[in-house]
Amino acid sequence: MIRRAVIKGVGHYLPERVVPNSYFEDIVDTSDEWIRTRSGIERRHFAADGETTSQMATSAARAALENAGLAVDDIDAIIVATSTPDLTFPSVATMVQSELGMTQGFGFDVQAVCAGFVFALANANALILSEQVDRVLVIGSETFSRILDMSDRATCVLFGDGAGAVILEAQIGSGTVADRGILSADLNSDGRMRDMLYVDGGVSTTQTAGRLRMQGNPLFRQAVGKLTETAEKALQKVGLGDDDVDWIVPHQANIRIIQGTAKKMGVPMDRVVLTLQDHGNTSAASIPLALSVGCADGKIKRGDLIVTEAIGGGLAWGAVVLRW
Ligand code: UT7
After folding, report:
1. pLDDT of 146-168, one tens digit each?
2. pLDDT for the residue 140
3. How close is the Cα of 39 to the center of ligand 1, in Å?
4. 295 a catalytic residue
5. Angle 286-296/53-68 helices, nearest 10 degrees?
6. Of the four listed, 28, 54, 153, 181, which is most buried by Cβ atoms within 10 Å?
7. Helices marked H in 167-297
8. Which residues are near ligand 1 (CB < 6 Å)?
């Protein structure tokens, strides 16, 4: 008998404003056709003026609490994965804590860019397994629209805003892969590739928030191999293989990366949750958004074996294997 961190609830929030690909045809030299075929994105949501990462995170958290049938008093900790916080500090997590009216426990942020939610899940799992907490709210929330260079066609068409949240709860399992909950994680980074995706401003350098810069093609060429390797490593850690996977819930950056990874793993595309056509790349929010939409659509069901995998700035990449 061992402790497991089991998903107890899931929810998401998307800003009201939907921005179709055609919007960018008026501001840069691009086309709906190029964006669809090269990335798979058709539309994305942009936050309203004044709408913040912490507000979206709070809305997603409320949806997850409702889905779990839990109250804020039941939560011991909040971890927010984000690279677009409201302020340099305090953390978005403490802002969510106060917005929810939570006066116990603790909150902190995790910054691993697009892989942030995978890193946050692994940290929440460690807190639960080490018996420091029983229930953790894990949120991915981003307002990437605020750091886009709207004159750079290679990046401005790719990203969107949104938030997703899950609640992890300590439950006792048998110690086998039949247990519900997080079964394994694999985390990686390699700072030598930090110039492939970064923001050109920050507190200790420019004292500005900066704008996103990306070498899309070199990053693309890293992605499929690293994502396949981390997903398979996480599966192998608990004696599972590609054939055991019910759903890949990938970071939603590019349909060709998602297809390439699924193909290498031998998992058919109808076993992959896809949201990028509607959300674009929402960085750390993309996996919890996809988990929430995948559940609401009736795809992900209790007992399903799920692999989440992501890569982004750092480079940082990783995977989590869990049974829903
Ligand atoms: O979330 C973090 C992880 N992010 C990623 O993993 C993103 C990885 N990269 C990608 O998804 C792809 O590299 C992109 C979608 C960004 C680009 O696709 P690509 O097939 O790698 O294209 P490319 O960068 O090699 O560019 C091909 C052409 C270039 O023109 P030339 O040099 O061939 O004349 C670009 O200038 O497409 C041009 N281009 C565009 N054309 C129309 C770049 N952006 C656009 C655009 N509209 N928006």
Report:
1. 999 999 999 999 999 999 999 99
2. 98
3. 8
4. no
5. 40
6. 54
7. 216-237, 255-265, 276-279, 286-296
8. 30, 34-35, 38-39, 114, 153-154, 157, 197, 216-217, 219-220, 223, 253-254, 257, 281, 311-312
